[in-house]
Amino acid sequence: MNARPLRFAASVLLLALAALPLAAADIQIVPSDGPGVGFNDPAAETPVGGNTGTTLGAQRLIVFQEAARIWGGLLPSNVTIKVDSSFQALDCDANSAVLGSAGATTVHANFAFAPVVDTWYNKAEADKLSGTSLGAKSASIGARFNSELGKTGCLTNTFFYLGLDNNHGSNINLLSVVLHEFGHGLGFQSAANSTGKFTGSGTNQFPGVFDRFLFDATAGKTWDQMASDADRLASSTNTGNLQWNGPRGAVYTNAYMSKRPRLLVSAPAAAVGIYVVGSADFGPPLSSQNVSGQIVAGLSDLATDGCNAITSNVSGSIALIDRGTCNFTVKVKNAQNAGAIAVIIVDNVPQGVAGMSGTDPTITIPSVRVTKADGTKLHANLPASASLGLDSAQYAGADASGRLLMYSPNPYESGSSVSHWDTTASPNLLMEPNISSDLGSTVDATLAAFQDIGWFLGSTAIPTTYVLPSSAHAPGANGAFYTTDLTIMNTGTFDSTFTLKFLGHDQDGTSGADVVRTLAAGHTVTFTDVLGSLFGVGSAGGYGAIRIKADTSALKIVSQTSTPPPSGIGTFGQAVPAQTADDFVTPAFPRALLGLRQDAAFRTNAVVANATESEAHVDLTLISESGAPLGSTGIDLQPLEMRQIGAVVTALGAPAGTSNAVLVVSTPTGGARIATYAAIIDQKTQDPRTILGNVLGAFATGVSSTYLLPSSAHAGGQNGAFFSTDLTVSNQGTTDATITFKFLGHDQDGQNGPEAVRTLAAGKSATYTDVLGSLFGVSSGFGAIRISADTTALKIVSQTSTPPPSGVGTFGQAVPALGPSDFVTSFAPRWLVGLRQDGSFRTNAVIANATDQAAHVELTLKSENGETLGTGSADLQPYEMRQIGTVVMALGAPDGTANATLQVSTTTPGARIATYAAIIDQKTQDPRTILP
Q: What is the pTM of this model?
């Protein structure tokens, strides 16, 4: 079989979709191999995929150090995490192998500051929570990996790939395996053994913190609530009903998981129904476009296993084939050769739904796997009319409420059951029991699980560092004078104390002035002209970054920087949100700033700000729309230094007249955290537009993605304005992308909107000027645009602008396309902060349904004191976009309201709602983008 069990020692992880603490864990690799083997193997190797080692042992160590760096950058701890690591001969044969095994060296309960009493925590997490190294062992994790892989008789000729670029081909990406194993050691691990018994004895027999989140849907209990070991044993094989009960895991499901594949049988009556299926790692994924036809038996003479050429007539039909004897890919390829349009594999053991592993790029038809019981029913009712597609109401690898499923096959699989995500997850997850070829160097839902189990808790609240990359009380070009207002909302349930530090620019910011403030739960405050009012910056002027260190991750922070226009009436400006750990440039995750230009009409300034108190090196690389390098430079930032690079396009060596450029901001400094953004500034009006960084990194291959641009325009506005939208798309992947643009319009079912299909080569960018006019032929209209692609590597931003009343120059705003992690879901409401309605400004809000199902949306407007000012709701049709003009008054608040916060939520399971607000100057009509 093609499955390659990882069989790690169990452990548990949590992902943080909210802001994470800035402090990074120091994870150290401690090799324990003897001379000449494992990490000390002297065999010569050529550097590969960013791994500069020249011996086998050195390359292995570099891969482990990279995994340590990635995990260390995500998890907070003041205690060094040591990993005792070695290479040994592990179980394997010619067709399968144990790739690695890892777990905590010790577990601890009832230590100082333990969040939950009578609960085991893996040493790394226990050390973090207690603030000290617990127990006699210095190493927190013990890890061993298969030294025999690829040798004859051990997955023969399939080796570990030692590059860091995920370009592993048919070999196994060692970096993915090490990330998985470290995940177990860090906490993705049950404290129950194969009999359901918890670790310990007598009065010290406790559940692990991981077990407190294992929920059995049949029993309606978590594992710590179950009365007996036998109950847990039964739950461990309750396929499809053992679930992760953590809220962050559910948020991850709704944000990132694909819709669940399903088989819909419409005839004969005895077989009618919806069948849950497992998907394949090979061949095209199922889509919302169903594959329909007759299910017929795929026979090789009289054999039903499909291991030889199919001799029955399956042409134009869906072939039903039994599991066994040969690889899944062989069966599907034989059916494809016989003309089948899809394949259903029937399991040969009585277990739950499972996926299918394997690699064969020549397979072009979809295939799925059904349980033995469902397959028996289908065999008895052939031919059957059916369609294969996606269940729009449920996610792959999750239950109807969004809980991720745990791996619980029947019979129990030692080393794999319980302490892994279920294999029906799509996209594949790092902590599944089998290696998948599409895993890269990300930790996906594991980090969400870690947040659920308490990795980001401490003895008090969760400390969080925010960085506003720029603020001003200073003059600009052509008579402009910029000032910054800073709005902070406390969305938590406890009062927050935070310290604001003005870092200035082009200097070590650690000695900057500090101001301490307290904000009650549910309250909002705006510091008007923050540099003048809080830090006393006077007429001489000043600008730079502001660090906000808070005792909570529940703050929502946004700034608005503005200047009077040349006429002196009203303002031009932009909104810039404060950034947190989710937003920073790190060694693992560069950022791309899109659509930059330097010409007679516009210039671009870029900002980089060091969010740590250590020095950091930053690399800036400018790339043309054709993917050619235009220039690069390196910057050495002092601790907490902010640097603005004026006219960055020409500063990096590109010629004047350059447009549609991409600036990639990266850092090689371990532990570095860099805030970045760009401002594209109109040369005539001096009006800036905020370009926020798009994260770069490993992209899933063979996985489609959908983005929603919540608004676009080719339409007139107030006072003679005419708004049009330019859309910039950058393909940061290594393969060409096919992109379908659909204009959804507004206040209508968007499913029948016009479409335009384009291909964008790998590494290239394209700007569709006046996108509604140029792509869709719209003469007057506005609304959302859905962008669907066959890759996850697209980065997308729009700029909507209009000439000012004078007709000279432009003003406008930039709005990024929103992806899965940005949407409002039933588990994740969103807030729009700092809204107002008065003589100077009005606010419009946008809500857009990102799915083909109707969705109910709730709107709640809160005052700066946390009082409810008004509520509203909307029932959105599929793909409907709705703009709520003057939303503050529309929800019942009086004219003159400022510092309001709009909460956007939904009660519809599976709903995904894009939202943002535009705060518009009443005199100039200049909008500022408020993102959720």
A: 0.68
